[in-house]
Amino acid sequence: xxxxxxxxxxxxxxxxxxxxxxxxxxxxxxxxxxxxxxxxxxxxxxxxxxxxxxxxxxxxxxxxxxxxxxxxxxxxxxxxxxxxxxxxxxxxxxxxxxxxxxxxxxxxxxxxxxxxxxxxxxxxxxxxxxxxxxxxxxxxxxxxxxxxxxxxxxxxxxxxxxxxxxxxxxxxxxxxxxxxxxxx
Length: 184
Fold this sequence. Notes:
The protein is an all-alpha fold. It contains 9 helices and no strands. α4 packs antiparallel against α5 (about 80-95) and α7 (about 115-130) runs antiparallel to α8. It is globular and about 50 Å long.
């Protein structure tokens, strides 16, 4: 975690405004509400609009779940977002990824033994993070594996989780109970 205390306090249900209560409605009745959402409850108008995009990226993207999670883990690692990393380690495991596959998101595209497609996904993520652009060589390689929609979803997935990592790190969103740390 970049900071040890929240800079933007996560709001508990009894602290929510009427607008926050409305936007948090889908989360009520769940076992728990994650700190990211309790933090975003401070700005319900932003949260409402952001959730539309976030829901596309996480639930309606044309990318296969494994590919999506690999690039989310990589951008979370590159941004040193411990919260993002921990949440998506659990999602990646739920999608059947091994800890070795998850660790490749830390070591990146030059990890020995990576499949070419994984190498391309990680390289594209690195390039977007470093230069806001996928190189011609990486793009050409990805075109052998992905459709136009999937290529678009890839770029927007990296961008979405870069943005989320910036927010989590800057707001000081703390790990939810049970999230793994960097030691995967």
